[in-house]
Amino acid sequence: MIKSRIFITTPIYYVNDKPHLGHTFTTLIADVLSRYFRQEKKEVFFLTGTDEHGLKIFQSAKINNKDPKKFCDENSSLFKETWKNLGIEYDKFIRTTDKDHIETVQYVLDILKEKGDLYEKDYKGLYCIDCENFVLEKDLINGLCPFHLKPPINISERNYFFKLEKYFGLVQKEIEKEKLKITPNSALKETKGLLKQKLTDFSVSRIKEKVQWGVELPFDKNQVTYVWVDALINYISAIGFYKNKNNFKKWWEEGYVLHILGKDILKFHAIYWPAMLIALNIKVPNEELIHGFFTVNGLKMSKTLKNTIDPNELVRIYGSEATRYLLLSQFPVSSDGDIKEAQFKEKYNTDLANRLGNLISRVLSLENKAEFKQTKFNSSKIKPNFKKILQETRNNYIHFMEDYKLFEALQEIFKLVDYCNVYISQNKIWELVGKKDKNSKLLLEQHLTDLSITLEEIRNLISPFLPKTSEKLGNLLKTKNPEPLFKRL
After folding, report:
1. pTM above 0.85, yes or no
2. Residue 127 clears pLDDT 80, i.e. is over it
3. Helix/strand/coil for 29
4. Helix and strand tally (H, E) in the chain?
């Protein structure tokens, strides 16, 4: 499908704690893809935000002796501040405590109730407060939630349920026909495994006396909306499903809808959410990009282990641009991986200060010494070998970016950087500087033409990943000022 108008979303993040590397990784992927598609002259709407209802939020606020709304206000602002520090530019930041969102949730539930897709029943089950989700006994590890390693609580209450079983086959058909594309293939296989389980109808509400902090059901004031249902609706409330039909049509109905998320919430997005959309007579998302889990220094991120990393601290040490690079260059988006914090300094110095930074300094210094400071190099005069490698790099880069392979796209850029550094050394270009004969001058000018045009291409390629660096490099190429892009640590 041609992606000429793209609606890119992250999950909305729970505000019971401050932003961590998991949130950061997902949001950086979305930011880089948004910038790339805009650079390719596509229309893009990038949505992120915070999930602010539920028992866990209520309890966290209580522990901190704060009103739930005030607690949410403070923690939501931490996400905005972190994204600003990382140079992440979204089009809208939604909060589930926004009035428009709450009204949309109630509007959606009213539609589902009127259609007969919601019904009441008594339910008993195990509930993990940290997951805000019911868990099956067979999935527990030594009686503990596999994600949070805490015992779930027994819940017995009368709730409203959504008729998932009614729409289960339709969801399956949408996935089989790739109207809902699940990327990568490993996530598709996992989704198909979930479909084979024949999941049952799911709860859309909780009793208000047990969960006081949530969106009231419009047809039952004694119940609040189950937090996951509330959260999923953000994707359509943010673009005007309830109050701005033209905007909703533009971005959802006519746009290419791309959800970016971690695989821990795959079931909700790949099965529950499409079922709700089909019931509402809305198209399913075009694609869901599922990224892997990652550990930190070989261990699962945990406050108990004290191995969580504050992205703002990384920005303080390395700067926003380097932090973006260090996180996205660790491993492929679709794979599980390990964040090796101990290697950040070495990787910063090797890749950014030495490979990229040194190349730019070498080329600009040569231009200055060779008195080409005022020269505007002509791309039509580039040699065939450089022209060929630039075309190959560009083709590979576009292929990777269109497939959301950011790690591989970065590798492609740095292969070009390395080619130029080796080229300078092998041809000993510096030895031509100062020579008076015509052949030497012409040869030097050709070398600098090839290298300068290549640097301009590198500037374009890194722009989605390192936007400020790209802008600074553009200025250096104009002024021919060999100022270091990244100072060695």
Report:
1. yes
2. no
3. helix
4. 19, 16
